[in-house]
Amino acid sequence: MLPKRRRRMVASFWLIVLAFGLVLAHLYQIQLAQGYKYARQAFQIGSQGIALEQFARGEITDRQGLSLTGGYYANRVAVIPALMDEKEHCLQQLADILNVNVNQLKDRAQRGAFYIDRTLGAGTCAELQNTDLPGVYLLPVYQRYSDKPLAVHITGHIGKISSREQFEQMQGAGSKAYLLGDWVGQSGLEYFYEQQLKGTLAKRWARVPVDALGRVIEGPGLLVESSDSDPGRLNVVTTIDGNIQRIVEDVMDEQIATGAVVVMQAGTGDILAMASRPGYHPEFFQAVSTIDEMPGELFVNHCTALFQPGSIFKVVLAAAALEEGLVQPATVFNCAGAAARPVRCWNAAGHGLISFEQAFAESCNPTFVEIGQQLGADAIIKYAAILGLDKQKITGYPVPADTRQDLSLIAEPYSLANCSVGQGPVLVTPVQVTAMMNTIASGGIYYTPRLVTGLSDHSGRLVQQYSAGRPEQAISPATAVQLQALLRGVTESGVGQKAFLPGVGSAGKTGSAQVDGYDDDKVDAWFTGYVPADSPRYIITVLVQGGKSGGDTAAPVFREIAARSMEVTLLPK
Length: 573
Fold this sequence. Notes:
The protein is an alpha+beta fold. It has a domain at 242-565: 3-Layer(aba) Sandwich (Beta-lactamase). It has helices at residues 2-33, 35-45, 87-98, 102-110, 122-131, 152-155, 164-171, 188-192, 194-197, 242-255, 314-323, 356-362, 365-375, 377-386, 416-420, 430-441, 477-492, 550-565, and strands at residues 47-51, 60-61, 72-79, 114-116, 136-143, 158-160, 183-185, 204-209, 223-226, 235-238, 259-265, 271-277, 332-335, 352-355, 445-446, 452-456, 462-465, 472-473, 507-513, 523-531, 538-547. The protein has a 5-stranded antiparallel β-sheet, with helices on both faces.
């Protein structure tokens, strides 16, 4: 009998422990896991108020934590209908001052407090202050986008959930709750990190306490509250350096109508700047209602799009020929100029007998066609892949791969000669070209490009980091040294002299890709290189679509960006 009683006591004890554990788990769920949610619901029930934040989202920042979208506070007209004694009269006066439709104000007032997202002139602000309408306030509201946000093709844009299908997709994407009409990421980092960026609480609120019947509780009046944190949102920290990004965009606005520029930190895969033109302002999407209204070319990120590289691709052949021992810098070739077959030289008169070193500096086509024939398609494909021209991965920036990039097409009949000079089916992105040049500047070590360092909380502490992966020895250090000397020859005595930077020197390669649809005198003009020539700091790739040539069009842009960037002190992350 005693053992039976003991068993009952033990069973009862564990039942009590289990029940207590369930209660603790439930309390944890209410107080900690979803405490902010219930607190917000209680706040909304017990007050009438508005969020003083245009969009409740985390920031997208540069490597130092500075907002790339350029967020700032601006005065907006906040309307609290519960504080209006004569609501219709007050709304009519407000409509007259702001020159807006009073019926629109009445419709919004029926749904509660709101603010008017509109920039006010000094005269309008003064008139509002002098009129002193009850329930109408000028309050600072956090705006996500400045007049000149940075890196818009990287950060992307947000837009409203406009269909039932998209709404259901967002609801099933993660733990965040959505409503039809919510603003969500539609492209770029805003899209890729929607679940991490989306906030659950506004950081600043204006409110008035109300009772269960919605009547204002006398005493407190308008309360403006703020919080340093929102447990639901994180910030996306990029590798971008805001100072260098601004330099790149300013130079592009001056000199490039259509094209791309990528700047990478030498010796790492970190992208310091990445800009595409033509550009756009993210607030454009607040003025259109359907995707059909959007001129798509504006939103193409040319930095990750595919282009024929032209003579930039000769770097691959040079690396392969040197690594395989087929050539030395002094190896002599013969250039017949316009009479050369199957590909003529840009120099109609021909270079005659020319060393490999000179042929690289002068970008002699017949020399590289001959080298391509000696190497064969398989070797060219191998070294193009080793140098990253088949890798579209960018750490932290999961752009879908473009399947049109297929190095195996180099082996197709009649393709070898054109591919040897970067034409035909050879396609690359400016980011890939930059990573290739970084491999040479870094002693033959390939680094995977990286755009996102990680995710940070409200205090700036990284809570998740993204590693670019292990570097790989792509070519031997000895071959890299030989290529570095060849690249210096391009800017010191060859076709890329307009990219030379006095005082510190530079090294690089030009490219002029002939593209269907251009006039006969227009090409996709490339220059990719690094600065300084010794101890490289920055790898810079410039693509100008519809340019004259790589040496005449892209090289001067490289030099301008390089000169300004050398004045920037690159701070550690």
